[in-house]
Amino acid sequence: MSWLHERTTELLSRVAEVKAHDAFPFFRPMQNVGSRVAVNGASYVNFTSNDYLGLSTDPRLAKAAIAATITYGTGLGSARPQATSVRHDELERRLAGWLGYGGAAVFTTGYQALVGTLGAFLGDDTTVIVDRLAHASIMDGVLLARGQHPDLELRFFKHDSMRALERCLETAEHDKLLVVVEGLYSVDGDFGTLDETVALAKKYGAAVMVDDAHGLGTLGPTGRGVAERFGVLGEVDLLVGTFSKSFGGVGGFVVADAPLVDFLKLSARAFLFSASLPVAQVDAALAALDVIEREPARRARLADNARFFREGLLELGFDLGESETHITPIMIRDERRTLEMGATLFHGGGIMMMPFVAPGVPAGTERLRCNVTAAHTRAQMGYALEVLAEVGKRLDVLPMRARTSAPSWKKAWWMARHAIDGALNAGPGHLAKQAEVLALPPLRAAASDVRRAVRRRAIGDGWSDAPPAPPEPPRREARAPVG
Known about the structure:
There is one protein chain. By secondary structure, this protein is of the alpha/beta class. 45% of the residues lie in helices and 13% in strands. The chain has 17 helices and 13 strands. It has helices at residues 3-20, 59-72, 86-99, 110-121, 136-148, 162-170, 194-203, 226-229, 258-267, 269-272, 279-294, 296-316, 335-349, 378-394, 408-426, 429-437, 443-454; strands at 36-39, 42-46, 103-107, 126-131, 153-157, 176-182, 207-211, 238-242, 252-256, 327-331, 351-352, 354-356, 367-371. α2 packs antiparallel against α11 and α13 (335-349) crosses α14 (378-394). The longest helix is centred in the middle third of the chain and has 21 residues, at 296-316. The protein is globular and about 60 Å long. The relative contact order is 0.13.
């Protein structure tokens, strides 16, 4: 074996240990996408997706992608300088107009958009100042630029600390300054105070770059992201977005003043030397932008779902860290327990949530990241809260008294819906998996609750459009309770 194999030993030994306990959470082969997915013959409520508006399965996007494939084929065969379609131009025009900038550059992925932009603008005469919690793709872009420009100064500041940021700005080695932050932080689910960041950067003559991959399409009065929410949309110099979150596809983009975009298209190596985004994805992104602009109800549904699930988690007593959005970290603060909880939710509860442990997050901040989307139903979220309550108590994450305030018949209805929808999603094999879940509450009590539930009309609580049921007439004879 070569040194290449030796390099793998430490990591793969840890992976083998986790797999031996059925706790390895990655590369599960899904048979579909959405808020409910089939994996190995069973069905799971999926809280790992960034498809915040549920557009990846929207028929309009699929139709647009199919039509583009028929017209343009499956790929353009080269990089953007010699493989730009009229649809690429149209998408860039629409994005620039939507966000109020002079131009836009569409990249093949969001990662490339960040890495390419940083590499194009950073040099030996530059100081780049980065929020300490910024995404790995930002770090990679800065480090790649530093490899070409050894005199590039890299400074980090404490997350969203204006005092720390100002100290970096005051003591920077170079006059050319770039402040790089995220709009919505993808691991913690919190905002930075972007208005204060922009004001402070402008005070020192610094340019500002914002990665708003998780905010564009979901936040702001019209869905234009965190910069719109804080009233600084036109003041961000370089605004980076992606099509792999709210747009339901793949790809990335940068909007900026027209001269900056022209320079970027001729300088960013990730733009110049990577194959063009297939037109199928370009037209899917255009269809998604139509939906984002014309259907604000999707954002409202996302906000309502996030509020419902967040309130349920807090009612149970979970620690949600600094989150205030649809990205909801359930803080466990212990590596082994985090992995164990993620595995128990998956194998015993039919729930997919992604565990985050070191080095992905600092030791002591381990968590399950739970992404709520507009596609989640009230029944799916209600079911997940009940499973989280049971698993949390079993693993001593929650006190034994923790429970939701939902009535028992509604809990039973959520469980019944999970069984029915799971069978429709994954086939009869899901029902065998559901039998394991039914061992969590007493079976007789669940059966009694289901019986009571099906005898009532559903109430208008978000998972049904039916009006509240009228009161039942009094009975002449008392009936013995079931169970």
